[in-house]
Design brief:
Elements (H helix, E strand, L loop, with lengths): L50 H4 L3 H21 L36 H10 L4 E7 L4 H9 L6 E7 L17 E4 L5 H8 L10 E4 L4 E2 L5 H10 L22 E3 H10 L22 H4 L9 E2 L17 H32 L9
Parallel strand pairs: 1-2, 1-4, 2-3
Antiparallel strand pairs: 4-6, 5-7
């Protein structure tokens, strides 16, 4: 900026416009003037102030300009509707938008090191999926075999201990990297509704929500994912497996988008989720006859061992009759839940005038 003349005051303005993808335009006016005093008009030579003496350091000018620009920007936006229309997650309104982290995961963090470097290293690794299983100590050997099939660098493991037993699993070589959640006599859908919120699992490619009594001798999870990503061979003429439009609930696998939809459909008080399997097709992101089905090139064996109702505890002769009674109560509640769910669905479909059933 050149020297100013004796009797004039010069101002310059500069502006910038961020890319159009931003929510609003920012207009910044930068004004500055340097005034010099003519020594001819000021006789006492010693009070003449030079331009260089009055000019603040360049860095200070930049700070003042930025602060002034921010003040102008806030003043302009305060009188507009732009700020009112900002889409912020519920509860984060008192916070600046950029500080909000509305997603999380179950990955463990070390107590030292640089978190930015750790995040960069994690981003370079293959995408991970989540394997979540309700378990009882009685099925320890079967679960150990199941989890061992899933590579640790590709799957995060979460165990839901419905019998409250956690310490008995610590000797297994993969147990230290698993997330352990314990709650007595609860089902996998109870756990899933409370601990697998979509924002908590948003970083996982697929969510495996499996029963514990599953034999995996004929199953390879990496090959399974490869087939799943490929979309299978479903077409418009498919009327049976592998394109069924629905799937049994023992070993379901959800994409992250399908799980977000399905989680909302799981009823908080219906812990067996009977009836949900017939509705999961609504969450498939397309025609359910093409997007929901069975990957029959990779198979598992469901052993069908009843565990709910006896807390997974080893059977004792004195408790066998009680266990049978408890399992009967489980079965009766399952049927009741099916009826309740179907009534709720029917009522919700009738009340929502903006919703059209794609599968009438």
């Amino acid at each position: 900026m050149g020297p100013a003349s004796n009797d004039s005051l010069h101002k310059r303005f500069s502006g910038f416009a961020p890319p159009a993808a931003l929510i609003f335009f920012v207009l910044v006016f930068v004004g500055g003037a340097i005034v010099t005093l003519d020594h001819k008009e000021l006789q006492p030579r010693e009070i003449v102030v030079s331009e260089m003496e009055t000019r603040p350091p360049t860095s200070e000018v930049h700070v003042d300009v930025a602060a002034g620009a921010a003040a102008v920007q806030r003043a302009e936006l305060a009188s507009s509707s732009i700020c009112e229309n900002q889409c912020k997650p519920s509860g984060s309104e008192p916070l600046p938008k950029g500080i909000v982290q509305d997603k999380s995961n179950f990955e463990m963090e070390s107590l030292g090191g640089n978190p930015e470097r750790r995040a960069a290293a994690a981003a370079a690794r293959p995408a991970k999926s989540l394997l979540a299983i309700p378990v009882g100590i009685k099925q320890k050997a079967v679960v150990d075999k199941l989890v061992s099939k899933f590579p640790g660098d590709r799957f995060t493991v979460m165990l839901f201990h419905y019998d409250g037993e956690v310490d008995g699993w610590r000797e297994l070589r993969w147990s230290h990297r698993a997330i352990h959640v314990a709650a007595m006599d609860q089902t996998k859908w109870w756990f899933g509704k409370r601990f697998l919120h979509p924002d908590m699992v948003a970083e996982y490619e697929y969510i495996f929500l499996w029963d514990e009594d599953i034999e995996v001798d004929g199953f390879d999870p990496i090959r399974y994912l490869r087939v799943t990503r490929g979309g299978g061979r479903c077409d418009g003429n498919s009327t049976g497996p592998p394109c069924t439009g629905w799937v049994e609930m023992m070993v379901p696998v959800f994409s992250r988008a399908a799980w977000r939809c399905s989680w909302h459909m799981i009823q908080n008080d219906l812990i067996y989720a009977w009836g949900l399997d017939f509705k999961l097709g609504y969450c498939a992101g397309g025609d359910r006859s093409l997007a929901v089905g069975i990957v029959d090139s990779e198979y598992v064996l469901h052993r069908g061992i009843p565990t709910l109702g006896d807390g997974g505890k080893p059977a004792r002769p004195s408790s066998s009759s009680k266990a049978a009674t408890d399992r009967l109560a489980v079965r009766q509640r399952s049927y009741t839940e099916l009826q309740i769910f179907n009534r709720r669905w029917k009522a919700a479909a009738a009340e929502d005038l903006c919703w059209t059933d794609p599968y009438p």
